[in-house]
Amino acid sequence: MKLHLKKEAKKTEQERVDERRAEVLAKGRKFKYPLQWTKYRVVVSTILIATIVVAIFIASGWLALYRFGMTDEFLYRITKFVPAPVASVDGETVNFSDYLMFYRSGIISIERQSGQVDNDSNLDELRLQYKRAALNQAEDYAYAVKLAKELDLTVTDEEVATEFARHLSLGGVERSEDSFLKIIRENFGLDKSEYERMLYLNLIKSKVEAAIDLNASRLASRIESMLKDNGGNYAAVAETLGADIIYEETGGMVPTQNIDGGRASAAFRLEPGGESGRFVSINGDGYYFVKLVDKTETEVDFVSIKIPFTEFASRMATLREEGSIAEYIAITPSE
What we know:
This protein has 335 residues and is α+β, with helices and mostly antiparallel strands. The chain has three domains: 13-65; 83-212, Triger factor/SurA peptide-binding fold (Orthogonal Bundle); 214-309, no CATH class. Helix content is 61%, strand content 12%. A hairpin with a 5-residue loop joins β5 (279-280) and β6. α3 packs antiparallel against α4 (96-114).
């Protein structure tokens, strides 16, 4: 006993502190590990629940889009942020968001006039027609994007902005951006970014159509030579080429802001008897040649020749015939 007390007495103060700390830590371990295990189980449970919720969300979205063909705004907004394919064209993905954008912008005016189309059996056939047209349109643009990549064609933000600015004065009416956006929102359900997306797709398709349609380009060169040789006689060219082109006369004055693919505005920049030369339609569907007959400060009288682009449509038809277009939704009355 005395020996033990002597050993205790020999310990320094620091040694006694260290021993006490070791005792406290040893007792604390009894509570530490059970607490760690509890935290581990909470983390695992949280991850498992989150995984199940996400899986249910994805499954519900898949059923709504692909099985039931729903087109409501909530699903549309989701597809804008969570990319989903509605089809593929020659290996190029067709965005579900583009399809829904085209469908909703096309059907919204009908919905507002006649109530919700989806709930009106009398308009069911019309709804299907709009869906079919929207999917075809989305497929066309997806293929145009694919070809643009191959041809190294691009559309810049500046080009989209210029086209947007041009639309502010469509029909000869000058509008502010706010008033124009209000019009497209109320009539088509589109915001500015969506409208700009449509402009982008239209511009890229226009560039692609002009680039790949070599027959139209050759015919345009031939017309240029014919007009040069015959003194700008558009009617004579039309008589020679017949159904290969579209010849039109206004037959009188039309507004300079007439919505006609850009012909009236091109004619207004000319002097009587002047010719525009070849230019691509604002709609991107062909080449135009315009000759001014007469004009005032607000109106023009002109003749025009149009060479429709056909190569792009021909390629799309071939892809459909070959089964190179896969659609992941069924647009049928059973929807």
